[in-house]
Amino acid sequence: MPRHTRVARLAQVPGIGVDRMGNAADAAHDSDILRLENLDTDISPPAIAIETTKNAIGLDENNSYLPFLGQDHLRKAATKRVSKVSHVEYDWQSECIISAGGMSGILNCLLAMLEPGDEVIVTDPTYAGIINRIRIAGGIPLFIPLIPSQAGWRLDLRALERAASPRTRMIVISPGMPTGHILTQEEWEAVANICTQVDAWLLYDAAMERILYDKRSVIHPAALPGMKERTITVGAASKELRMIGWRIGWIVGPKAIMNDIGLVSISNVVCQTGISMAGVTAALNAKDDGLQSALKVWEDRRNTLLNELEGLPAIPPHGGWSLLLDTTPFGITSQKLSERLLQETKIATTPMVGWGETAGKYVRFVFSNEPKERLIGLGKKVKKVLGV
Helices in the chain by DSSP H: which ranges? Predict the structure, then answer.
């Protein structure tokens, strides 16, 4: 076997924690374990998406490398979705590329847009998978704190201003993931102002943009003055459409950068999952994609989990599928708490180590994958482990 020295680009790329906890829960083969560690959901995709996918499997056109940038019908549907949400018009032929999932699309964008050493502003916490991809692409993540309170999270706007410099190439924002933080109009305007001042791109991870609670509405950054030409929107079928296994995402942005992103896409995954594209198209075009019904269930589960954790430093999420609990007041690390919760109470959670500079003190609870009835009683178990 050749001598192996770990390549430099992986020196600061750890795992994401979810895999270890998920593997441990799987290995137990115990249906009583509450699966709160991974962003899954038990709510089914749109029925039309499932039926259309079944019909698509046997078609020769879906068993092909071509077209490399995605089938036309899906590119049209994805572009229409982004244009509808953002109120900004895009051309499907020159401003949309289909990717093999949202995170694959984000990596393609980073590889197409970053030079080694470019600085990328992200929130703290941020999904570890995004941080890792920034580093793999040669970027340097700069972490801007999300400030927790009993009312939710807010972006530290002063820290954002201090971090911005001529070295800033990009800002990456993922509403709802992993904290449940949803940017306000003021926060989006601050992000847009920084992009303009330092001539930076905005990479907008829109996978959860419509998963909003308490009657909130979407604010799409491309609609802000001067931001269409700076915003790359990466969407996915995994969250809002509940189509995790289909592995389909889309990248919509200004024509000037799309050729480069397309070149990376072809050089990376080559093509998307052919048998998945028709089903995702059907879901995007459906009059009712089931999201509103799903939101009612997810919000009810969120409220149940918040009630269970009342009295503990759990930060209310305004969107997304998860909430975070600060372990600092209890003198226990997030890793140790997650281990004990699984071993002693059959609750699988994720320690947030590697999800930012200060994120390691949090444990993440995903509420999208377990019925409300199974969440009842969770609080007593968590408090027992914490000794409160």
Answer: 18-28, 47-56, 72-86, 102-113, 128-136, 157-163, 185-198, 255-268, 274-285, 291-308, 334-345, 372-375, 378-386
